[in-house]
UniProtKB/TrEMBL annotation, chain A:
Keywords: ATP-binding, Nucleotide-binding, Transport. Residues 8-255 form the ABC transporter domain. This is ABC transporter domain-containing protein. It comes from the Bacteria. CDD domains: ABC_Mj1267_LivG_branched.
Length: 257, 334
């Protein structure tokens, strides 16, 4: 690797639930502009790691650094303000709101106008609303959702809902995008459309951490792969390197390829 | 006027009468005009009911915001009506100009909500509901024992409210004051919901984790809505104290809090129009029942038994048949 400092650095991350180690002494880093995938069988600790980085869980031990500063004690919304955006797998889109409104929520990370400005209808509030609409329109365009902009979000097909989660994340202008199993539950064409979107973001230089089950998806997108099993890192490297690693083959791929 | 602000004004006015919102906006304007003529047509006794209806509506707009957008149930919302009323009453009796005393009511109520909200908003669902109920019981017993608040007898001999030398000494004056109050809280609620903060609130009502990860400060927003809803109830309480001229802990029973919840649910949570309709509907029904229950030959407990029974029946009927409440259901089907 080059000497460019990593954008995200996870050091010695450990999380216990009662006596069970969900994650044990995990190190991982994401370089600027890199797409880094975390893979592993069910129960490997992928989602625990994901939640530690997003702030939905607190680590039992270890540190998480982002952009040169520790973030492991920050609330999730403060991490969002620093430029970490998340697209969740199992969290639905915001119901009762249109696609555009869903995406506009993502602009929270980069806007400030408070309730008083809104109630009084101050120019500051109106300027910011216009700005948010603009950001949302651009994010929708990047995610290829412009045609759906005024639909109710919960009426979208699953593939579009995933793209909508990504668009919402993009609306806050993130530097690091966390994707939680984006391909799960999607059919072939939806899956390759989403892979195309992620590829495009990667081409634009966005740093991406991808937690994924689907090996073909990871092979297509990831610069580097970290493999977890039973809460530990068992291999790391390019996809070509880890796919021939004997430990990975036994733990995850289930046999020689 | 600069060119930019002229253009801005055009945009503003055209948005006020924009095509999609046209229907709803005209409904609002027509409704406001009709309702503002109503006090002139009412008999004195009905005027009192009208004022009490308006005061409930103010509290219910806030509660509907709290329940519909922040997903919090408060069974003690009348605590804030009481806090507002006692704030105005005590200040007015201690020679504060009545208008200032009235303005203090929503502020003190909001501060009280912000104070108790920090610990109790950590609770969810029915635990929060019980905590707010407990708060009201505590408040009522404190007020009942406090000498400075007049104990169980309460406060008496409050002056009339006066605004800029005009003394509001007739029921009709208070009817219009209450109408202005309803309009004010509706406007505030409307603008809040349409803003960035409102989008954050709507988002957190359906997906708290995703909202927080998008940068929405979930805890702060919950507290904000709780404080705003308390301010609305507090303002209603302040007007109430000047309207009646006396206050007692018994004016703010737990039944009043339950009445607010029934009004909000029947009208439709998270809908300002629903809050207003719910308040109107329940007030009229209760008024009819009270008339019925105080007929000669009825037992002395008839009024309270009837009102409890009717709240329960209405709540069950609405949850079974129009779970979203009347106004959102009508809007969806139209």
């Amino acid at each position: 690797m080059t000497a460019v400092p990593a954008l995200l650095t996870v050091t010695g991350a450990t999380r216990r639930f009662g006596g069970v180690h969900a994650l044990r002494d995990v190190d991982l880093d994401v370089a600027p502009g890199e797409t880094h995938a975390v893979i592993g069988p069910n129960g490997a600790g992928k989602s625990t790691l994901f939640k530690l980085i997003g702030g939905q869980l607190v680590a039992t031990a270890g540190t998480i650094g982002y952009d040169g500063q520790r973030i492991d004690r920050l609330a999730p919304h403060r991490r969002a303000r620093r430029g970490i955006a998340i697209a969740f797998q199992d969290s639905p889109v915001f119901g009762g709101m249109t696609v555009t409104e869903n995406v506009m929520v993502g602009a929270h990370a980069v806007t400030r106008a408070g309730p008083v400005a809104a109630v009084l209808g101050l120019p500051r509030h109106r300027r910011e609303e216009a700005e948010i609409r603009e950001l949302a329109a651009r994010a929708l365009d990047r995610a290829g959702l412009t045609a759906w902009a005024d639909r109710p979000a919960d009426a979208l097909p699953l593939g579009q809902q995933r793209a909508l989660q990504v668009a919402r994340a993009l609306c806050g202008g993130p530097r690091l995008l966390l994707l939680d199993e984006p391909a799960s539950g999607l059919r072939g064409p939806e899956r390759s459309a989403l892979a195309g979107l992620i590829e495009q973001l990667r081409g634009e230089g966005l740093s991406i951490l991808l937690v994924e089950h689907d090996v073909a998806f990871v092979a297509r997108l990831a610069d580097r792969v970290t493999v977890l099993d039973l809460g530990r890192v068992i291999a790391r490297g390019t996809f070509a390197e880890i796919r021939t690693d004997p430990a990975v083959i036994t733990a995850y791929l289930g046999g020689p390829p | 006027m600069t060119e930019r602000s002229e253009r801005h004004d055009r945009v503003f006015w055209s948005s006020l009468f924009s095509s999609r919102q046209d229907g709803i906006r005209w409904w609002w304007i027509a409704g406001a005009l009709i309702v503002s003529a109503v006090p002139l047509l009412l008999a004195p006794g009905q005027l009192t009911t009208f004022v009490l209806l308006g005061l409930s509506a103010m509290a219910v707009v806030g509660l509907s915001l709290l329940m519909g957008y922040a997903g919090q149930v408060s069974l003690g919302q009348a605590s804030f009506t009481a806090i507002g009323a006692y704030t105005s009453g005590l200040l007015a009796l201690h020679h504060t100009p009545p208008l200032l005393a009235l303005l203090a009511a929503p502020i003190v109520a909001a501060l009280a909500a912000a104070g108790v909200g920090v610990p109790i908003l950590r609770l969810r669902g029915h635990q929060l509901a019980f905590a707010t109920l407990a708060l009201q019981l505590i408040l009522l017993s404190v007020l009942g024992d406090a000498d400075w608040a007049g104990g169980a007898v309460g406060l008496q001999g409050l002056p009339y409210l006066s605004i800029g030398g005009f003394e509001l000494d007739a029921d009709l004056d208070y009817a219009y004051l209450v109408l202005a109050g309803v309009l004010l809280v509706s406007l505030i609620a409307h603008r809040l919901v349409r803003s960035r903060v409102g989008r954050g609130l709507r988002a957190l009502a359906t997906g708290e984790t995703a909202a927080e990860a998008s940068g929405v400060p979930v805890g702060a927003y919950r507290l904000l809505v709780f404080a705003v809803s308390a301010a609305f109830a507090g303002l209603a309480g302040g007007i109430y104290s000047f309207f009646l001229g006396y206050l007692a802990p018994g004016s703010f029973p737990v039944l009043l809090s339950i009445e607010y919840v029934v009004m909000a649910v029947v009208g439709g949570l998270g809908s300002i129009g629903g809050a207003l309709l719910g308040a109107a509907l329940i007030t009229v029904v209760v008024q009819l029942l009270t008339t019925l229950a105080t007929q000669p030959g009825m037992p002395s407990y008839a009024p309270s038994v009837l009102s409890y029974a009717v709240y329960a029946l209405l709540l069950i009927a609405v949850v079974l048949f129009v779970p979203k409440g009347i106004v959102p259901t009508l809007r969806r089907s139209s």
